[in-house]
Amino acid sequence: MFVSNMRRRLLVAAVTMMASFGIATVSVAQNKPPLKIGFGMGLTGGMAANGKAALVSMEIWREEINKKGGLLGRQVEFVYYDDQSNPSLVPGIYTKLLDVDKVDLIISGYGTNLIAPAMPIAMQRNLLFMTLFGTNVNAKFNYPGYFQMMPNGKEPAVGLAGGFFDAAMTAKKKPTTVAIVGGDNEFAAMTIEGARVVAKKYNLKVVYDKTYPPNTTDYTPILRAVQATNPDIVFFASYPNETPGVIRAAREIGLKTEVFGGTMIGLGFAAVKKQLGPLLNGVVGYELYAAEKTVNFPGIDAFLKIYQSRAEKEGVDPLGYYLPPYAYAEMEILGNAITTVGSLDQKKLIDYIRATTHKTVVGDVKFASNGEWEVGRPMYVQYRGVKGNEIDQFRKAGPSAIISPKELKSGELITPYQEASK
Amino acid sequence: MKNNSKFLFGMLVFAAVLGSLPFLIKSEYFFFAAYSVLQFVILATAWNILGGYAGYVNFGSAAFFAIGAYATVAGFKLQLPQGVNILLGTFIAGLVGLGMGYLTLRLKGVFFSIATLALSVVLLTIVINTPFLGGARGVYVIVPRESPIGVGQYIHWLYFLILGMAILSVIVARYIQHSSLGQGLMAIRDDELAAEGLGVPTLRLKLYATTISGAMMGLAGTTFPYLITYMEPTAAFNLSFAVNSIAMPIVGGLGSWLGPLIGALLLGSIQQVASVTLSSTWNLLIVGGMLVFFVTLAPNGIMGIFKKKN
Question: Are B136 and A186 inside 8 Å of each other by CB?
């Protein structure tokens, strides 16, 4: 009896101990410090519209991953500061993130000018640095920890302009001349350099090659000068604040050319689409996503559904076709890398990200040695049949026919521009 | 004389306290923040020489700052030593200040201000179209992580540099205030025609002021590329330099060397704290709110409030 009592007590004690150990383990897991990811993001200033949209996408990922138990058993926390779209604030922000906030990982804010000042810090400390839409930032350094999400290919300048020219060369009347125009900014300078290379490849004669100051508001004189050279292709490299003015001016002067468009940033934004409406017709523009049947990256519909349901409330781009899916995909890659590697060892994470083909909502991503996408996928669409200024028409296939690259093509280029713009 | 010794003793204590901080504080970020505040001390002090003493409102602070910064970029590309770059930037900015003075000082009031604003636009266009300076794309100025004096990080070294420059600027500003140059500038501010009638060489004094003010603003920019390590036009010609270099003397009190110092230390620190604790929107709101407050209720700034009490 006594023995049996002893056994029972031992059993109860053992179970209690095991249970309490289990509870303790669980509570330790729950009490694990959060995994902190730090970044600066343009929430005010020139980059704010995109910065805010990127942040919403990243928050969607964070909420999802935390619902699944976080990463390495730790809840993911973002520590971020508004870089005010001002590059001079970036070094201070990243130093604070690393030294004061003690973040586990850093990622970049949005845009080349906000990525570049953080590069030396990431390099000095040998950190993994995933970045959002930088243009050729790593060209001089070839820093192995740098990975960039814009799908322009190993040679971003040539790849980006190349997609436009590939499409333009399918015009009915074979183009022989080109006008290259762009703003005085780093993005246009790089793209124009690429355009010159591609024009040479296609034996196109450059009949106009000029830039305009960043504060230009009236593009009519520029387009009149372009028209005077009578080019078959008009290639513009413009920023979002310039693009609507350029397109309006082209319509105003009745630009006569076979193909008109280029790396006109801003066309991917719902606000610009809404503003221009039917004026978009005929323009060949750079997009990162279009609601065409040929674009079927797994998971992108589900992501856009969640994003769009939150966009209005958060006051960000209601369509989310430009930056948001790529911001989410960046976090997917980072999260998967941490889970697979099983630690926050920066070198191991860098090696894994470099060696792997990542499955994301923007398709398969494989990085080249310079941190750009191994195979680029600059997407060019020709707008057609746009009626009125409602953005809902862009939620369905039709108004943004993809004409390049071949694998995503959903329509043929209509030329000349005058004909296509009707 | 007695006042001078008091001032020099005060500056010595100021230098000793701030100079010892790198040995006491571990956080690198603190020095980034302190650098920004001290940078504004120089800019505000420099602006006050022309704006506060002579009453000529200069909107082109960012241009002079950028001259200093881009002189360093050029020097860095030519592999010149840091000391040479600092001197070069200061000299060129002073020279541009002199040139701007010649061209614009016959203009008065708002016309002079617009002319200084145009200087920023002209210089920005030049930089954007000069590939050697990085053009629109920008240029890297990569520095080692360690301080060249062998103690601490590079940011500590930059902090010592900007601290020294800030102290020098304040000393120069105070010297000018109490010199015949300062008295002449203040006479110009109060009534230029009367001053000229009394024999004050107004144009010459104003030229001195634009040169010294420009050189000091350029000085503030010379170490900036080493701080941000990536120079591009929007960073160098940022509107915040122009706005803060006017706002800080207004908040501190125009027309005396102490006003800009107080304004820069106060407003600069608040901005640093607000931008990382609240948000940049709040940060801008605070600056705007303080400006509205001081311009409407205390036009002579903090110095004015204390003077009234006394």
Answer: yes
B277 touches chain A (CB under 8 A): no
**Contact residues on chain B for A43, CB-CB shorter than 8 A:** 279-280
Position A318 pLDDT exceeds 50? yes
Residue A6 has pLDDT above 80, yes or no: no
- Helix extents (H) in A39-89: 48-67
Residue A95 pLDDT class (50, 70, 90 cuts): confident
Interface contact flag, B136 A119, Cβ < 8 Å: no
Subunit contact A99:B28, Cβ cutoff 8 A: yes
User: Mind telling me how many Å the CA of A314 is from chain B's nearest CA?
Assistant: 16
Residue B3 has pLDDT above 80, yes or no: no
B199-218 pLDDT, tens digit per residue, is 888 889 999 999 999 999 99
Q: Residues of chain A with pLDDT > 90: what percent? A: 72
B94–A contact, CB cutoff 8 A: no
Give the pLDDT mean for A277-286.
96
Q: List, in sequence order, every residue forming a beta bridge with A365; answer none if it has no partner.
A: A358
Closest-CA residue to B46 (of B94, B9, B2, B85): B94
Interchain pair A95, B137: CB under 8 A: no
User: pTM for the full model?
Assistant: 0.82
A81 touches chain B (CB under 8 A): yes
Cβ contacts below 8 Å, chain A against chain B, sum to 94
Instruction: Using CB atoms, pick whichever of B229, B240, B279 lies closest to residue A82.
Output: B279
Of B158 and A188, the one with more pLDDT? B158
Looking at residue A183, what is its pLDDT? 87
Question: CB–CB of B37/B45 below 8 Å?
Answer: no
The total of other beta-carbon atoms located within 10 Å of residue B131's CB is 11
In whole angstroms, give the CA distance from residue B228 to residue A382: 41
DSSP notation for B197-214: HTT--HHHHHHHHHHHHH
Give A392's DSSP letter. Answer: G
Q: Which of A46, A41, A48 is nearest to A317 (CA)?
A: A48
Give the least confident one: A15-29, A99-113, B40-54, B180-194. Answer: A15-29
Q: How confident is the model at residue A28 (pLDDT cuts 50, 70, 90)?
A: very low
Residue in A closest to B225 by C-alpha: A88
Give this complex's ipTM.
0.76
Residue that the structure tokens 């102290």 belong to: B167
Test mutation, A44, A79, A94, A95, chain B, max B CBs within 10 A: A95
Give yes or no for B33 touching A (CB within 8 A).
Answer: yes
d(CA A89, CA A81): 10
Tens-place pLDDT, residues A334-343: 999 999 999 9
* Average confidence score pLDDT of chain A: 89
Chain A contact for B137, CB < 8 A? yes
DSSP chain B: -HHHHHHHHHHHHHHHHHHHHHHH---HHHHHHHHHHHHHHHHHHHHHIIIIIS------HHHHHHHHHHHHHHHHHTT--HHHHHHHHHHHHHHHHHHHHHHHTTS-THHHHHHHHHHHHHHHHHHHT-GGGTTTT-EE----SB-TTSSSBHHHHHHHHHHHHHHHHHHHHHHHHHSHHHHHHHHHHH-HHHHHHTT--HHHHHHHHHHHHHHHHHHHHHTHHHHHSEE-HHHHT-HHHHHHHHHHHHHH-TTSSHHHHHHHHHHHHHHHHHHHHS-HHHHHHHHHHHHHHHHHH-TTHHHHHHHHH-
Task: Tell which A residues from 263 to 292 touch B, by Cβ distance under 8 Å.
Answer: none
pLDDT at residue A286 greater than cutoff 80: yes
Choose among A121, A128, A116: nearest CA to A97. A121
